[in-house]
Write the structure tokens for this entry.
Amino acid sequence: MNPIKPTFSWCFFLLLMVTMGCSPASQKALPVGAQPEQRATPVFHVDPETAGTISGTVRFTGKRPRPAAIDMSEDPACIEAHRGKPVDESTLVSSKGALANVFVYVKKGLEGKNFGVPSTPITIDQNGCWFQPRVLGVQTNQILKVTNSDPVTHNIHPMGQINREWNHSQGAGDEPLARKFIKPEIMIPVKCNIHHWMRAYIGVVDHPYFAVSKTDGSFTIEGLPPGTYTLEFWHETLGTQEQEITVPSHDRAVVNVMFKGK
């Protein structure tokens, strides 16, 4: 018997096994319907040497609305807690025409950037049988801290359409609640199921560039990377409007907006 033949056969067999072991078909397959693991987008860090600011004022034009009185007589404790004559605050216009409670945020221009979640919570308080503040912003996955400073039981009920709707009662002296919204949503209406006049609105965005106009109509958004952005201005009774603005490097851009009365 020729001893060379078995040696050749075994070498061929070993070569065949090595080739098969290196082929893509032999690699571990993903389960049906599974997706390859994707790396998380790195957190975007703004260069403080080039970061800019947007500031401005929101004003109201037309006949100044007269706030309607709110009847809290169904809960005498609310009348006492409010310490005054409650009026509707859906459209707060100062004597000089400044419009408060307008939610301002960057709607376009930040695509592809991932921003870290702030460790500091945003607080909404139930005080004087009002939600305070009435309009607020929070980042996705940032803690929303809910407190009750009143001597009565309240109920906070955010009615999200994109985020999960939930409601929770909170008695006097109860510990604060902690909740999160995981998806952007403009805006989430909030009510109290116990006191029908209590209203608030929460703007959820996936970046830190938002603000709410103050009683003098002013707002400021800081720390923006230079670029061109679309701002949206939202008001609960007057609707929305947009403006495009360019933020220069390490400088301030100013935008003033006017809402017309209906």
